[in-house]
Amino acid sequence: MTAQPDLLYSEAEDDLRAAVRSLLADRCDAAAVLTRAESDTPYDPRLWASLATEMGLAGLLVPEKLGGQGATHREAAVVLEELGRSVAPAPYLTAAVVAAETLLGCDTEEAAVAELLGALAGGRTVVALAVPLSAAPGAEVPRAVRADDGSLGGRITAVADAAAADVLLVPAEDGLYAVETRAPGVTVESLTPLDLTRPLATVTLDGARGRRLAGSAAAPVRRGLLAGAGLLASEQLGLAEWCLEEVVRYTRDRKQFNRPVGSFQALKHRMAQLWLEVVSARAAARNAADALATGSADAPLAVAVAQTYCSRVAVHAAEECVQLHGGIGMTWEHPAHLYLKRAKADSIALGAPGRHTETVAELVDLPAPR
Prior knowledge:
With 370 residues, the chain is of the alpha+beta class. The chain contains 11 helices and 10 strands. It has helices spanning 11-27, 30-37, 45-54, 73-85, 92-104, 111-121, 218-253, 265-294, 299-324, 336-348, 353-363, and strands at 127-129, 145-148, 151-160, 167-172, 175-180, 186-190, 200-209, 211-214, 255-256, 259-260.
């Protein structure tokens, strides 16, 4: 009999949330995010150092014997909720979740794997998985790179956070390789993404040398993408919660005809509907995080359900945030557009909702939706 998932937050998780929220409030307010988005370096190295090294968040999923914190996906989900609330420009999802889980899917007794995991967990090295941001768990692992005796060649487009990475995990025909971004034969060309807080890049390898970490990339990459998709739902949840809270605050303060616009029945219905969606999204996201943390056999289904639902809720919440703010919501100075862009970009990251809906149908043996 499958154990019932624990959807509640523990005291330790609440304490972690408070610590992360306090740091982000101090270092990552809307003005700071906008400033970074307009610059050539979207990431704040000091913020990342505080998150990854001082708070030890980069190694939450890495076992203590390998230099990490030995926590679970539940704690990582709480961190991502807070990062989503502030649309923080930090490579946490790609490095501390996707890359870390990919490395944990390799043989951690191998010196090269253990060394890289330790550097990632300690915040000394930023690692990114070199696959397109749209790559979905369960799909065939992208293999755009060919290998010839450790020499790699190929081109991978739309790699998230490649520009911030020190090391790339590159799936190739004969295994998974670790390639330093500053090595000869490696070119990382920045793209112009919809979401300026999560930069994309095209990675070109031309005779680049890499260390082979695993003889097959399939299992490690699928593990990384599954965890990434499952915890992306928590980022989407945090984003949707901020949008709802901001809409309620604004419509309470904004007056028209000498009364708060939030008192108008039509807007009450829209916000009530959004509240119901956010509450349901929280249940789906927490279920996915708990399934991953406990190693449940239902984890692929829980992740697919969470992504199917949370992606749509995040986009709807961000759209409502822009619209219910009226004219000010359309301006660059107001942060609503940052949340809408992040929600839209997240909705196609690690598998679009339609792809996850198909996965749900396959796993529960239902006819695929038309």
